[in-house]
Amino acid sequence: MIWGEKTESKSGLYLLEPYDPNRIPVVFVHGLLSSGYTWLNVSNAVRADPEIRRRYQVWAFFYPTGNPILYSALRLREDLALAQKKYGLKHGIVLVGHSMGGILCRLQAMDIGPADWTAIFHARATELLPLVNTSRCCETRYSSGPTLW
User: Nearest 5°: phi and psi at 23?
Assistant: First the structure.
């Protein structure tokens, strides 16, 4: 978003209706320079179809797109972990992302290990990896492997 500092406090996982443990959450994640409103027509179509609505409920993840991708992915992971803790999510979830939102969704199921760091950061990998291993990323299992929701 252009005014990312104004949207940071509004970022997070939003339920569009009260949680129903008998339906699977479908989490829509918008892309670069966009917002959750991008998914308005899709979420209305999902909610309008009685068969789909019976099995799924729409959630949205909103984030300022000016933040680093890995930070936004961490925020999504934290919110999904909180939802798991609060609701149990016994049927799992479905992540749907567009553009940068797709990258955030993909990062929820990836294991970024030392070999990946070396390929991405080259000579600085050995300098940067210890910083990540001592940050709150590890506390939320971001660098310890994928989480299957």
Answer: -120, 150
pTM for this one?
0.77
Could you tell me if 62 and 10 are in contact, meaning their C-beta atoms sit under 8 angstroms apart?
yes
What does the DSSP 8-state code read for residue 148?
-
| Ramachandran angles phi, psi of 35, nearest 5° | -150, 180
At 49-66, the pLDDT tens digits run 999 999 999 999 999 999
DSSP state of 82: H
Residue 120 CA to residue 69 CA, distance in Å, equals 14
Question: SS3 of 109, please?
Answer: coil
Helix (H) or strand (E) holding 97: strand 94-97
| All structural domains of the chain with their residue ranges | 4-108, 112-149
Helix residue ranges, H only, the chain: 4-7, 40-48, 50-55, 69-87, 100-107, 114-121, 125-133, 136-139
CATH class of 4-108: alpha beta
